[in-house]
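Q: Fold this one first, please.
A: Sequence and structure below.
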Amino acid sequence: MQWSELFTKENEPSESQIKEFVGTALWDDLDGFLKTEYKVKPKVSYSSCAMDKGMWKGWNVKYKKSGKSLCTLYPKQGYILSLVPIGAGEMNDAELLMPLCTQYTQNLFKQQAGSGHKMMMLAFEVESEEVLRDMKNLIALRVTSR
């Protein structure tokens, strides 16, 4: 059963239900990292967006620090779908970071970089520790930029 069917708009999931549905230690790693490293409290919210065949529909978990979005996590069975914003102030540092990232992350970045926008939203399918590391490094740019 899909996440949006299991937890409808009227049925907000608990942290333990989210963790159980995702079913990977990557969730605990990322959630714990964001809470510990940046002292942020996640906010569970509902999105009715139906783009990409409902991929973004349903309950998600947002992490913000000082009003700035660090990432939004969408629980998927066996992995995490995550949106990480890269603002104009982080773009140069993100470009410098790319050679140290996985090929997967480099490809995501290249696809977005050609859009001509000053800000990009990288949509990660986090299925490995290596991609999770890339995501953490990009989030660190959001926190340290002004």
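Q: Good. Now the second chain.
A: Here it is, same layout.
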Amino acid sequence: MRIVFMGTPEFAVPSLTILHEHKYDIRAVVTAPDKPRGRGQQVSFTPIKELALQRGFQVFQPDNLKDSGFINEIASLKPDIIVVVAFRILPKEVFRIPRMGSFNLHASLLPKYRGAAPINWAIINGETETGVSSFLLEEKVDTGSVVLQARVRIGPDETAGDLHDKLAEVGAEIVLQTVRLMELGKAQPRQQDHTLASPAPKIMKEHCKIDWKSSAQQVHNFVRGLSPTPCAWTKHRETLLKIYRTSLISSVSGASEKKESGHVVHVGGEDFIVQTGDGIVKLLELQQEGKKRLSVGEFLRGYAVRVGDKFE
């Protein structure tokens, strides 16, 4: 069984690992080009390239997936299947190459949350369950027939980072099972019900500002759905603060009367509590722009904030 694997970030690493551990013939790995990353802007490899080099796989990093040279290289490998996990949109000239077809692993229960940020949106929207889906590639993104799915519970305080790691591991098992079914000719793909589709578009920094007029539950979901990246933020006296974790509480002793949304109602020690449009939230992890991420106690020891201060 000859496989070409396509992926880029950490989410794809367990899937490539499990295929290699089960002795599948990984003819090549396709990933994003090297680029400057981090504060130092030093050129670094993608997580998938690092793994591929460790395991001795041939690596392709095309700028243009429609380039005829790249397409001919992949075709010359005569793959039985192309497996795609967290990669770019493939043109039909590529995904039609394998004799058994190409499939993608998506981090939602399709047709829900089609798009680039399914994990984030599931949590932001307060879902208590999500999952992963393997589906056959078609020209329209995330619309192909589903081969397998696995459901995963979302905990009430679980962040997008927590869920990401869990889904990556569950997804790897689904990738392995999907390859086995296709290898045996036993896959039974089923069409998605497009009327049930919901979007999960890419989230930009400007979309991550906290709306303190929302309810406490909505703010809590928003923060954890964007943690650790791209991260929810607010402003305090023109200083940008990133909020990584919060918790829901019903009341706090020693708090003054109810404030308007966005106002600090209690602060001190390990407590940093903010009024929302309906209820209060306790901030647990914060980061002042340009500084380290800190627990609330560490943060308050180095940053001045008072009861009555307002977050914008």
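Q: Anything worth noting on the second one?
A: The longest strand covers residues 239-249.
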